[in-house]
Amino acid sequence: GESVGLHLPTLSVQEGDNSIINCAYSNSASDYFIWYKQESGKGPQFIIDIRSNMDKRQGQRVTVLLNKTVKHLSLQIAATQPGDSAVYFCAENGSVGTYKYIFGTGTRLKVLA
Amino acid sequence: SQTIHQWPATLVQPVGSPLSLECTVEGTSNPNLYWYRQAAGRGLQLLFYSVGIGQISSEVPQNLSASRPQDRQFILSSKKLLLSDSGFYLCAWSVGQGYNSPLHFGNGTRLTVT
User: Fold this and answer.
1) A contact test, residue of B1, B30, B36, B44 with most A CBs within 10 A
2) Mean pLDDT, consecutive 10-residue segments, chain A of 113 residues?
């Protein structure tokens, strides 16, 4: 399987609890942000995105919060399930009008039964 | 719906041998296409991207090259592999003719150079 995720920060959450995964992004000019989920041996899976003209966006069981003042992004997962166990990472577009995304290194989420 | 296919899933190649990884996208036209490499504990490193047939932008000088012979086909190649080329290679696509759209990834190729 994929060895990505070694030595990553780990968040352990009890099944049914809410999870909050944080990301500090690097470029104040970034105006588009994405959260991905990556399971072992698989490619990253798109979860949710947000543009800089918003500070909150909700999806199914997930919410992304954006704080541009401190360049902080968070992903909230409600009622965490065993299937949510994975590595989560954020991405930013770095600057307006670019095809190049900057990816964080990720956080491993472990769901405890 | 759009799908992305990447193969092979795993590959073991000797040093000095050639490489060809292929990626195809279905269900969309004129996508932006990308090759990334992912190292353990690190973020994804962009290797190449393409906004159209025959257009390739290289991000990192290295032993690899990319080609886009058809609209929805992206190929990563090397003439002679190095040990340092080992890694997890990901192909991705995004909606073309615009920015700020999510990348959609394939399931990757684990390359081991021995």
Assistant:
1) B44
2) 55 97 90 94 95 95 96 96 96 76 91 93
Are B21 and B89 contacting, i.e. CB atoms less than 8 angstroms apart? yes
Strands A45-51, A32-38: pairing is antiparallel
**pLDDT value of residue B97:** 64
Cα distance between residue B14 and residue B81, in whole Å: 7
For residue B67, give the nearest of B53, B79, B51, B46 by alpha carbon: B53
Answer yes or no: do A2 and B103 touch at CB < 8 A: no
Please list, in sequence order, all residues whose beta carbon lies within 8 angstroms of the beta carbon of residue A73, skipping any fewer than 6 positions away. A22, A23, A24, A25, A33, A35, A50, A64, A65, A66, A67, A90, A92
